[in-house]
């Protein structure tokens, strides 16, 4: 009968009044986490919670509705999605209030990842300029030590003259990222880097 179908549909859907904002969801979604506040509120509708309802029959929850969206979406599809303008700490607070342990764990991981990214700060580089002759270029570039990257080659003309043959001179600019673990101190260069420095320091 239509009346029975209507009653069944009504019992399936739940209206929530969270801090003055209405949300509609199913009992199945709200009870996805059996130990959560929402499951106890909607699926074990007993006197223990003293669940108040407003004039429309919606469950009254005195919490910030801004952060309820990510909570409800997590229960719907199991993924943590937080808009850029929302603070993760706010979502964490609500996840703890609603007692959704798996979501609390996810939000804490997200906050930790963000803190790690922020603490690394901008990448710093250290640069060196090496002087070499044309015939030494290939060997010098091929023996650059790990971490050093070729940046620029500058021709500075011919300084040496062997018989009739001019040897072109070059300045080779190389760089490497400054490792955060060194706290701003450049580590002692490897043997290969020392060879490069010595070669570069010849005039």
From TrEMBL:
InterPro entries: BTB/POZ_dom (IPR000210), SKP1/BTB/POZ_sf (IPR011333), T1-type_BTB (IPR003131). Signal peptide: none annotated. Residues 12-115 form the BTB domain. SMART domains: BTB. CDD domains: BTB_POZ_KCTD2. It comes from the Eukaryota. Pfam families: BTB_2. One of its GO terms (molecular function) is cullin family protein binding. One of its GO terms (biological process) is protein homooligomerization. GO terms for cellular component: Cul3-RING ubiquitin ligase complex; cytoplasm. This is KCTD2 protein. The gene is Kctd2.
């Amino acid at each position: 009968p239509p009346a029975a179908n209507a009653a069944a549909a009504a019992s399936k859907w739940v209206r929530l009044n969270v801090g003055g904002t209405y949300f509609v969801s199913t009992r199945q979604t709200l009870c996805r986490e059996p130990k959560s506040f929402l499951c106890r509120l909607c699926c074990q509708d007993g006197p223990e919670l003293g669940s108040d309802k407003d004039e429309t029959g919606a469950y009254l929850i005195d919490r910030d509705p801004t952060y309820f969206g990510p909570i409800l979406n997590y229960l719907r599809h199991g993924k943590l999605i937080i808009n850029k303008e929302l603070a993760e700490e706010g979502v964490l607070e609500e996840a703890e209030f609603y007692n959704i342990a798996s979501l609390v764990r996810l939000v804490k991981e997200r906050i930790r990842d963000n803190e790690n990214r922020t603490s690394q700060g901008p990448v710093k580089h250290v640069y060196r300029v090496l002087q070499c002759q044309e015939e030494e270029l290939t060997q010098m570039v091929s023996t650059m030590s790990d971490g050093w990257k070729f940046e620029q080659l500058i021709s500075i003309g011919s300084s040496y003259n062997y018989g009739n043959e001019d040897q072109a001179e070059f300045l080779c600019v190389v760089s490497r990222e400054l490792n955060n673990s060194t706290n701003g101190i450049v580590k002692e260069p490897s043997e290969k880097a020392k060879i490069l420095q010595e070669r570069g320091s010849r005039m």
